[in-house]
Design goal:
mainly alpha, Citrate Synthase, domain 1, Cytochrome p450-Terp, domain 2, 2 domains, 3-stranded antiparallel sheet, binds acetyl coenzyme *A, binds oxaloacetate ion
Length: about 475
């Protein structure tokens, strides 16, 4: 049996399987009125779409509305890491090349590092930025997958076997593991890409050790590029992208996953790979890849990229599930918390504009801007929403990465390289506060029935 056959349903007739699919769908479907009857907070949201309060955090604050006399008023979005506005962090940092490392320190330890603290922190990270040749050969090079998020999960789960003390969830041990993972993530992601490029795209296999003294952003570009060269601007833009993606409160899907999985008392490798699994989803971090593919589709299907009507008609087709991936979503648009704007998108857009001018991609930038301008209104209209729909962090990030020559397979892994700092900070916060196991309720809405004998089943008498 070959690898492909191994994953196929070779012994089932098509009609037999279709029958199973239809039974499975029928059995899994629940009357949507019951959600209203039992006041189920679907997606853990109340009837106004606000998230149900499930935890407290000091790590970051995501602000999309102001409350005036009990009413929520949409405002421009703001994001705070440990109380500092992320815009101020980006503007204020004197550590031009190492903003991401500074933010990682801030998220883990709650305050901005002075020079001595930062030097020691960088030394620790640099020392941990290593993978053994055997690990690269036995884990990363094997069973490469087209989606590198799965490779990342595989590598992180495998690191469990290389850790002498993997299951100890005391704070010192989890902090040690967190620093290990934060330092190793860029290597795991870039090497996974190199393996994929070699085995699946027939490219040269190139595994470079990270360079001591380089920042995370610089090392990503260095390890990725054949000649290891990059400009100051390229490294700066990537460093800022990492800062913008590093953390986003406790409620986003992947960080909430960190809390849920951590609350069961499991190990760091399992918790972080679960968070990566969540981030991969196209409604979350995987949206940056979808945006890239969606724009390729819009560009291929709209003759005149400046024609507002033609572009809007195509966006409406996407919303009507008639075009692109037929999911009905305009990727990169919408947010659970932000209303008027996502502050990260505002910053990324500035870089996208600047880079597009440098790279002669103004036409593409203009199309992004047109979609950004129109899509919010179209979504509000189609979905009958009153809350403004803005572009989110994933809207321009892939475009920026592509202008930095980063292959699209690495778009979501770069998000993970950044967000692992936030996940680790939240895992530690969950452990320090010795939280209860997270265990919400599900109301049973099926029917209890007497056990059905084989004879009755064979005679089609099983009650439904
Ligand atoms: C890093 C990040 O995770 S940022 C988000 C990245 N994800 C994307 O860009 C994918 C596209 N966007 C979306 O799917 C959504 O906007 C989400 C998942 C980000 C937020 O979803 P929600 O919190 O449910 O948004 P909200 O409550 O405002 O949505 C209301 C309705 O508008 C729809 N809607 C929201 N955004 C979009 C969109 N971009 N395209 C089409 N419909 C949308 C929702 O599906 C929902 O419809 P429904 O009530 O019929 O189910
Ligand atoms: O907060 C959210 O729901 C999603 C998001 O923007 C993020 O995780 O960065």
């Amino acid at each position: 049996m070959n690898n492909q056959q191994m994953m196929e349903l070779t012994t089932v007739e098509k009609s037999e399987f279709e029958q199973l699919v239809s039974e499975c769908t029928r059995s899994g479907s629940i009357d949507s009125n019951l959600y209203i009857e039992y006041d189920v907070k679907r997606g853990l949201r109340d009837s106004n779409g606000n998230g149900v309060l499930t935890g407290l955090t000091e790590i970051s604050d995501v602000c999309g509305c102001h409350s005036v006399n009990g009413r929520k008023i949409p405002v421009d979005g703001e994001l705070y890491f440990q109380g500092y506005n992320v815009e101020d962090i980006i503007k204020g940092s004197s550590r031009d090349r190492f903003r991401f490392e500074e933010v990682t320190y801030l998220l883990l330890f709650g305050s901005l590092p002075d020079d001595k603290q930062f030097e020691s922190f960088l030394r620790i990270l640099t020392d941990l930025q290593e993978l053994s040749g055997a690990f690269i050969r036995d884990v990363i090079m094997k069973a490469t997958s087209a989606n590198l998020m799965n490779s990342l999960m595989k590598s992180i789960l495998s690191l469990y076997s290389y850790d002498e003390n993997p299951d100890d969830i005391s704070v010192p041990n989890v902090l040690r593991q967190s620093l290990q993972l934060i330092a190793k993530m860029p290597l795991l992601a870039v090497y996974a890409y190199q393996a994929y490029r070699h085995y699946k795209l027939d490219g040269t296999l190139m595994i470079k050790n990270p360079k001591k003294g380089y920042s995370t952003a610089e090392n990503i570009l260095y390890m990725l590029r054949d000649d290891g060269q990059f400009s100051e601007l390229e490294a700066k833009v990537l460093d800022i992208c990492l800062v913008l993606h590093a953390e986003h409160g406790g409620g986003n899907n992947s960080t909430f996953t960190t809390h849920v999985v951590t609350s069961s008392g499991t190990d760091t490798y399992s918790a972080i790979s679960a968070s990566i699994a969540s981030l991969k989803g196209p409604k979350h971090g995987g949206a940056n890849l979808k945006v890239q593919k969606m724009f390729a589709d819009i560009e291929a299907n709209c003759k005149d990229w400046e024609d507002r009507e033609e572009v809007c008609a195509y966006l409406n087709k996407i919303l009507d599930k008639e075009a692109f991936d037929k999911a009905g979503l305009i990727y990169g648009m919408g947010h659970a918390v932000y209303t008027n704007s996502d502050p990260r998108e505002v910053i990324l857009k500035r870089f996208a504009k600047r880079l597009s001018e440098e790279k002669g991609m103004q036409r593409e930038f203009a199309l992004y801007e047109l979609v950004e301008k129109e899509a919010g209104e179209l979504i509000m209209h189609k979905r009958k929403l009153f809350k403004p729909v803005c572009a989110n962090v994933d809207f321009y990030s892939g475009f920026v990465y592509s202008m930095l020559g980063i292959p699209e397979e690495l778009f979501t892994p770069i998000f993970a390289i950044a967000r692992i700092s936030g996940w680790c900070a939240h895992r530690l916060e969950e452990l320090v506060n010795a939280g209860k196991i997270i265990r919400p309720a599900y109301k049973y809405v099926g029917h209890h029935r007497p056990y059905c004998t084989m004879q009755d089943r064979n005679e089609g008498k099983q009650p439904r």
